[in-house]
Amino acid sequence: MKDLFYYYRGRKTMPVEVSRELGLGYAAPDAGGPSCAEGPGPDGSAGVVFTFGDAPLKVPKDAVWRPVPGHDDEGGKPTLWVGFDPNDRPGPAELGRPRQFPGYAVELGDGQRWLVPVVRNYEGETDFPKVSDWDGKAWTHDKVRERYRELFDTATGFWDELKAMMTGAEDPDKQYTVNLDDKIGFAVSALAVNYRLGPAELALLKLFDSQVEGEVLLCALDWPGYLEMASKKEEAAGPSSSPGGTD
């Protein structure tokens, strides 16, 4: 089957509520539950195999599995696994969400182009929905909806540091560093807006590397759009304009 599938030890079924309790809400569709089948998992134990995709559930003998970190029994053995069929590898077409936000197509580690949404554009705006509010006289669009707010706020912080580093406008009294976990975590969360992916799935499919993850982060911050704007502004100003003179 051309999709991701999961295995959880010790259960015969996997109601959607339980899958969300396991932290797999990002992998589940907005409606409906997973398709399930009893069977041995990669550890040979009894459990339930399930998938959130539309393809019929079929797990091959040579399936590639990976434990999902943070789900171990008292003995330290994994209880939750994610896998895929190496002969029918899922890609952006299979893992895409019904609603996708616009952005940049980036080639990831599987050689396919995935749509990285612009979380925050260079003008500070976003295509994420904002809550409508009414003050008794007029309607306004207030804060980004809670589902996307933390990601948008994180993008704002990254943007401030990125622009300062790239344009030489650093505050000498402030240290500009981007933690690797934060950098990759933000890139994963951005990609997960448009796809049924989380850290474990992305690592299983080997979609990121040290170069790709940086490209995803820059695209999510609309850095290509900023560079294009800066280039056009410099051209319009003429040859006498000084480098780095953009806003």
How does this structure look, described?
With 247 residues, this protein is an alpha+beta fold. The chain has 2 domains: 5-90, no CATH class; 94-235, no CATH class. It contains 7 helices and 9 strands, in the order βαββββαββββααααα. Strands 2-3-1-5-4 form a 5-stranded antiparallel sheet. Strands 6-7 form a two-stranded antiparallel ribbon. Strand 6 (103-107) and strand 7 (113-117) form a beta hairpin. Helix 4 packs across helix 6. It is globular, with a radius of gyration of 21 Å. It starts with a strand and ends in a 10-residue tail after the last helix.
Instruction: Work out the helicity level.
Output: 25-40%
Class by SSE composition: alpha+beta
Largest sheet: 5 strands, antiparallel
* Domain module tally: 2
CA-atom Rg in angstroms: 21 Å
How many H/I helical runs?
7
- Give the N-terminus to C-terminus distance in angstroms: 50 Å
Shape: globular
Average predicted local confidence, pLDDT: 88
Kindly estimate the percentage of residues that lie in beta strands according to DSSP. 15-25%
Features:
9 strands; 7 helices; single chain; alpha+beta; 2 domains; two-stranded antiparallel sheet; 5-stranded antiparallel β-sheet
What order do the helices and strands come in, and which of them pair?
Elements: E1 5-9, H1 16-21, E2 35-40, E3 46-51, E4 64-67, E5 80-84, H2 92-95, E6 103-107, E7 113-117, E8 130-134, E9 139-144, H3 146-167, H4 180-194, H5 199-204, H6 212-220, H7 223-237
Antiparallel strand pairs: 1-3, 1-5, 2-3, 4-5, 6-7, 8-9
What's the short story on this structure?
The chain is of the alpha+beta class and about 250 residues long.
